[in-house]
Amino acid sequence: MTATTQTPLKTNTASPAAQKLSLGMRPSTDRAEVLQLWTELEQRIGHLGLPCSADWTEAWLNAYGDLVPHCFLLARNSETSALQGICLICEGVGQKDGPLNIKTLHVGPSGEPETESVCVEYNRLLVAPEFEGEFTKLIVEYLQSRSGFDQWNIDGIATAKLAAFHQHESDLKLRIEPAYGFDFAKAKAEKTNVLTQFKSATRRKIKRSMDAWDDLSVEWAGTLNEAVDAFSEMVDLHQARWTSAGEPGSYSSKRFTAFHEELLSKLVPQGLCPSSIRL
Q1: What is the model's pLDDT at position 211?
Q2: How far is residue 83's CA from residue 145's CA, in Å, rounded to a whole number?
């Protein structure tokens, strides 16, 4: 973690006919250069998902990077030196297993204290598809080489993607937690409205609420300034709701709030984030 240059770690021992990857570690002090490489790789292989994007990673590091020790793993083609995969490795802070404090490693932007966590979902690796299995194997070997940790976690990753890790680490335990994100793409593809995508009990609850607000109007924020204003109103409402119940509210955390504010400023101008809604 204290090195200042890329440190060779391991080269895959695939057959001579197969392309090989070499894995290198870059320390947290190389953040600016690594994020530039991250952006270039994402542009080359395509956007694979928000949590493994350069935008999400940079926003997370700006909010939590000074709190959570971390480094970067870069996988290159051993013959051409072309970058083929990249990921963030974090050392957990304030992690527990029941009442016990534990030392953890995390694949991806995670490891922040639970009370301030962004709770990453739909996590995956940013890697050229043809190298995904090989990159996964090298990451597992790297994690296994790190001593002094009680466990390592791949937070928020889809079950299908977790299988690739399980192939190389049989002791990996799967814990399934519900993801509450809404799939707008599915609703659009099926040409249905938002309500039809929810379970019947949820639909009834939403309809009852809408009936109680019969004079409700909806305004979509069309610009970044409008989105920021709507987000600020949402934060105020959220905090008022939870503080009235004797709870601190998610946005009492300056880090949590700063992460969302930066992500909003990055994604709305690109059209990658649904504009906030003002009711």
Answers
A1: 80
A2: 22
Contact residues for 227 (Cβ-Cβ < 8 A; gap 6+)? 221, 264, 268, 275, 276
Q: What is the DSSP letter of 215?
A: T
The whole-angstrom separation of Cα 204 and Cα 149 is: 47
Residue 22 has pLDDT above 90, yes or no: yes
One CATH from 3.40.1080.20, 3.40.50.150, 3.40.630.30, 3.30.450.20 for 7-166? 3.40.630.30
**Would you kindly state where each structural domain of the chain is located, as residue ranges?**
7-166, 197-278
C-alpha to C-alpha distances, 235 to 56, 220, 232, nearest whole angstrom: 20, 17, 5
Q: Rounded to two decimals, what is the model's pTM?
A: 0.80
Q: What is the pLDDT of residue 176?
A: 64
Rounded CA separation 28/55 (Å): 17
pLDDT band at 160 (very low <50, low <70, confident <90, very high): confident
